[in-house]
Specification:
16 strands, five-stranded parallel β-sheet, alpha/beta, five-stranded antiparallel β-sheet, Rossmann fold, Beta-Lactamase, Helicase, Ruva Protein, domain 3
């Protein structure tokens, strides 16, 4: 050891520095005290010869109070006496002091074949365990994000059309063929994709969803396929895993597939054909085992005719077609959905929808489908102080659309019944006014709003009501 110290002194760049002329024992002490591992050294008689600062902090001891003392007075449960006696080391022993957990190696110190003492080296694993727990939590979070949230139990509907769709979707879930879900915006296409995955044999694998319309076109390729380090300016140094690779052994859901750039469609087609992907900037192909569920609210066949969608990709995606009916075609499901949304968002209130309000909502065509119905119920619950959700609590835009649709409908009837023009006109006016009052209310404020929606003055409205009652 002294020769090593002399070598250090000769190599010290500051020849005249006092730090380079320290005694070996001082060097050893500085080195041992700089370690994060806690070290205790005893002689063959188990008397304490040295403790470094990490050990005294770990055990809550003072070095000057312990030096030269028998080990049993300071650490009566220590295994050093046994190790010195047997000469057999003990490693990776788990110990705990307060909230600190550490792993201990208990080793004999030998000079030749003679045991001259013993040493314990304690490694604090509290921080390592906390880091491991954070990694586990992060992995769990990632898995949760890649997990399908909904099942077929979350699909609400009792109409024959909806039941038929669910039955076909369950059959499709049992296989491995690609599925294309079509339907208007807000009908629940993504929810159906979740349910299919959770019903399939891939349910324990990842479910990765990507909205092809929400990601800029110049980023969509790197999101789907990933890239190698340095593949392009701004690329992460370590590269990036693409979503096709992330979805391996699971399902990838390509929402709004009709908005995928034409140039990218050919690469997706190749993945479906070969089950291989190639990251941007790489020459290596990677095997992927995925099932593709895609969805769109667009007519892909029309896009094919205009050259905006590849016909060969369409047939690869559309192995099993599933069409979600719009809400206006399954109005018998509306009361069921309303009850569900009231319970979901009422926050403990005993809220309920009046029969008059229900009739109004059933007359509405719901262009935004289930999503619009959900938003409507949230609006009514937030804007209503009592428990009864009434007609006046319905969003104004729905009332306006209903009144306008009544006017359009009656205008159409006028054109079909020109023989009794006066009678038809009066009937149409009466029905439109009475429906508007049912929507807005029969008080003064309701009549003002109804008159405005009908495009007439309040005075004209009162005159019409007087005429109808005579």
């Amino acid at each position: 050891m002294q020769s090593n110290v002399r070598k250090f002194e000769r190599s010290c760049p500051v020849k005249d520095s006092k730090e380079c002329l320290m005694e070996p024992d001082e060097w050893y002490s500085l080195i041992l005290n700089s370690l994060s591992d806690a070290i205790l050294v005893v002689d063959k008689d188990c008397r304490i010869k040295f403790m470094n600062e990490s050990y005294t902090k770990l055990k809550g001891l003072k070095l000057e109070d312990c030096m030269g003392l028998p080990l049993r007075q300071v650490r009566p449960a220590s295994l050093l006496p046994e190790v010195i006696k047997t000469g057999k080391p003990m490693k990776n022993l788990l110990r705990k002091t307060g909230n600190n957990e550490y792993v201990v190696d208990v080793l004999p110190i030998k000079k030749g074949d003679m045991i001259v003492g013993g040493i314990t080296i304690s490694k604090d694993v509290t921080m390592a365990q906390e880091l491991a727990r954070k990694v586990i939590r992060l992995e769990r979070t990632i898995k949760e994000k890649q997990k399908a949230k909904y099942t077929f139990n979350d699909l609400l509907g009792k109409s024959a059309q909806f039941k038929s769709l669910v039955e076909n979707a369950k059959k499709a879930a049992r296989g491995n063929a690609n599925i294309l879900i079509t339907g208007e915006s807000g009908t629940g296409k993504e929810l159906l994709a979740h349910a299919i995955h959770n019903e399939s044999e891939r349910q324990d694998g990842p479910f990765v969803a990507i909205n092809c319309a929400a990601i800029p076109q110049d980023l969509l390729e790197s999101e789907l396929f990933g890239y190698e380090s340095g593949a392009f300016t701004g690329a992460n140094r370590g590269g990036k895993l693409g979503l096709f690779e992330v979805a391996d052994k699971g399902t990838i859901f390509l929402d709004e597939i009709g908005d995928m750039p034409l140039a990218l469609q050919g690469k997706v087609l190749r993945v479906l054909q070969d089950k291989k992907i190639r990251r941007i900037g790489s020459t290596k192909e990677v095997d992927v085992d995925i099932r593709v569920i895609s969805a769109t609210n667009k007519n892909l066949e029309d896009l094919i005719l205009t050259g905006k969608f590849r016909e060969d990709l369409y047939y690869r995606l559309n192995v099993i077609p599933l069409n979600l009916p719009p809400l206006r075609e399954r109005k018998e499901d509306i009361p069921l959905l309303i009850d569900y949304f009231i319970k979901k968002y009422s926050r403990g209130r005993n809220a309920f929808l009046s029969q008059e309000a229900l009739r109004v909502l059933l007359d509405y065509d719901w262009p935004g489908n289930v999503r619009e119905l959900e938003n409507t119920m949230v609006f009514m619950l937030e804007m209503t102080e009592g428990n009864e959700l009434k007609v006046e609590n319905i969003p104004p835009k729905i009332k306006r659309r209903l009144v306008n649709s009544i006017k359009d409908q009656k205008t159409s009837e006028l054109n079909e019944n020109e023989i009794d023009l006066k009678e038809v006109l009066m009937k149409a006016e009466k029905e439109a006014i009475m429906r508007a009052l049912a929507i807005y209310g029969n008080d003064i404020n309701g009549k003002k709003m109804a008159a405005k929606a009908l495009g007439i003055s309040l005075a004209t409205l009162y005159n019409k009501l007087k005429m109808f009652s005579s």
